Amino acid sequence: MVRKNLEIDQFLNAIYNGILAINTEGEVILLNKSAARFIGVPMEEALGQKVDKLVPNTGLLEILETEESRPTQKVQIKNRTVISNRTPIYNRDGRLIGAIGVFQDISDLEKVTEELREERKIKEELDAIIESSYDGMWITDGQGYTLHLNSAYEKLSGLKREEVVGRHMQELVEEGYFSESVTLRVLEEKKPITIMHNIFKKKDKKVLITGNPIFNENQEIVRVVTNVRDITELMALKEESELKDKLAAQYKEELDRLRSGQLKLENFVVHSSQMQHIFDLAVRVGQVNSTVLIAGESGVGKEGIANAIVQASERKDEPFIKVNCGAIPENLLESELFGYERGAFTGADRKGKLGMFELANKGTIFLDEVAELPLRLQVKLLRVFQDGQVMRIGGVKPVSLDVRVLAATNKDLGKLVQQGDFREDLYYRLNVVPITIPPLRERKEDVPALINFFLSKFNREHNLYKRISGDAIDCLIDYPWPGNVRELQNLIERLVVLSREPVITLEQIPQHFKSVFKGPEEELRLHIGKNLTLKEAVSRLEEKLITTAMDTHKTTRKAAQALGVDQSTVVRKLQKIQADQGYV
Questions:
Q1: Does residue 244 lie within any of the structural domains?
Q2: Which is it for the CA torsion 298, 299, 301, 303, positive or negative?
Q3: How far is 150 from 140, CA to CA, in rounded Å?
Q4: Nearest partner of 369 among 296, 425, 316, judged by Cα
Q5: Which of 210, 240, 446, 468 is least enclosed by beta carbons within 10 angstroms?
Q6: Mapped to the 3 state alphabet, what secondary structure does 128-168 carry?
Q7: Is there a domain that residue 400 lies in?
Q8: How many CA atoms lie within 13 A of 486 on its CB side?
Q9: Which domain CATH number covers 175?
């Protein structure tokens, strides 16, 4: 009998699953090694203990109460997930004497299941990414058998997955599905391959195909992923882009032609990027009817910009009336602007008189020096804007007008508004499209072009052929030009008329224009000095030329062009100069 019990114990301990039995008092009467290991208590200590104190959640006490079996239930015991089969124990008389449970630890299985679930999720996401790709994708194994292709490839080629999945690429080529297989070349050459490709169902369509091998740890190809892109659309976009570039070039050429025509017509010179921007704006604004306020110092060319606006507008063949509000006496300004009826005042013309606004009907009126308008006339001008009508002095019936207004000033109207010297409402009526012309001292690159323009103009007018030296031009570039373009124009005319020599030199420039100019001899004297070797003097002169070129042209490329050397030479020597000066 003892041997039999020993054999039973050995049998129970050999079972992988945990076995635990209790009596009707809830005390442990049987457990095997797997159960002891499972609950973390030695077998000898566990026997006789209350099961609910030893290990909770076994559910065996519930079996005692209900006398019902509970097969295949998942429970948590000691932070482990187990499958339990629990059943009541009866004696031969049918009396309940206990309960027994068989517990299978499935924690590792749960972990594996979760990993499989996560891998399945990753696979589904990867499939979704491949499927959502705009490009067609074709995937084979390392032997060249087709595993998958996405919907984009089906749409692009006209093929169906069921036609090709599982088939070898060589077979598909032989049957005429493709003119060539990039996959076979990847498998042969073991590197990425890109080819142009014809698809058999759409032979008029070219696609660009790139095949990429995927290697395992043994450097064996396990997959070939092929990306397919229809380049027909790209070619169409390229042609469309080229067409747009061509149209843009045509538009620019047309704008340049219009600008050139304007410049020639209005005797207006545009050279600097600032003035090119302003003139382009004037041409664009000319094509609408918005009111324009042109601001800038005296002599910068405000009237020239007004002329450009008019010449670019649909009103260019209509009247263009120019009024200098600062040159007309205040007591006459109202009648000049708005006109008067006969007998309106003593000395008035018996027939009455049309004002400037009426003379400009259907066309444009240019109010130069608009800041000089008295406040009482500003009110009347505001009514012209608001009502599109003008009331003559002594009149009883308003006259309807269609007039575009351009205004100009050399004063800060915003500041005058704050001082109460200019009406705020009129200021906003005038300042619809503001154009500010910078003074000549802020755009010195325009000076040489203006000099040549005025020189040519006055040579023609006076039947002369005068030229100007480079030193003289350099001197005039340095001058600040408080009188702006008008001052420069007057100087060139004076030099052309009074100069007896064919070449206008630095000596003929009036002294006050040379106040800020340092001649070349003085420049050399200041920067080279005495007691220098020839090599040191050449180095000083070279440094001066390079730094001057950079100050003038701002970029090494333009400076190199001006100096007649390679850009790399300027960069190298500039770096040396900066190093000598402690900048690097």
A1: no
A2: positive
A3: 12
A4: 296
A5: 240
A6: HHHHHCCCEEEEEECCCEEEEECHHHHHHHCCCHHHHCCCE
A7: yes
A8: 11
A9: 3.30.450.20
Q: How far is CA 313 from CA 99, 248, 291, 316, 318, in A?
A: 106, 22, 13, 6, 10
Determine contact, residues 255/280, Cβ cutoff 8 Å.
Answer: yes
Q: Is residue 79 part of a domain?
A: yes
CATH code of the domain in which 283 resides: 3.40.50.300
Residue 191 domain boundaries: 114-234
Series of mean pLDDT values for 10-residue runs along the chain (584 residues): 61 81 88 81 83 81 86 78 86 88 77 75 73 78 86 78 84 78 86 72 67 87 84 73 72 55 54 86 89 92 90 90 88 82 62 82 92 88 85 82 92 91 91 92 88 89 88 86 90 90 87 69 48 71 78 78 81 75 46
CA–CA gap between residue 299 and residue 489 (Å, rounded): 10
The SS3 of residue 67 is coil
Would you state the structure tokens that stand for residue 320, as one six-digit string?
A: 């263009």
| pTM greater than 0.70 (yes/no) | no
> In this structure, are 15 and 97 located in the same domain?
yes
- Bridge partners of 104, per DSSP, are 83
Report how many domains make up the chain.
Answer: 5
Cβ atoms of 398 and 285 within 8 Å: the answer is no
Alpha-carbon dihedral of residues 365, 368, 372, 378, nearest 10 degrees?
20
71 and 168, same domain (yes or no): no
Do 284 and 328 fall into the same domain? yes
How far is Cα 311 from Cα 297, in angstroms, rounded to an integer?
Answer: 23
Which of 51, 84, 105 corresponds to the end of one domain? 105
Structure-token pair, residue 395: 């009149």
Residue that finishes a domain, picked among 81, 105, 129: 105
Q: Which residue type sits at 454?
A: F
In terms of DSSP bridges, do strands 364-368 and 320-324 run parallel, antiparallel, or are they unpaired? parallel
- Rounded Cα–Cα distance for residues 370 and 296 (Å): 12
**Residue 554 exposure: Cα atoms within 13 Å on the Cβ side:** 1
Residues 386 and 300 in one domain: yes
Alpha carbon distance 233, 246 (integer Å): 20
- Look at residue 437 in the predicted model and tell me its pLDDT: 92
Residue 478, domain CATH: 1.10.8.60
Asked whether residue 245 is domain-assigned, the answer is no
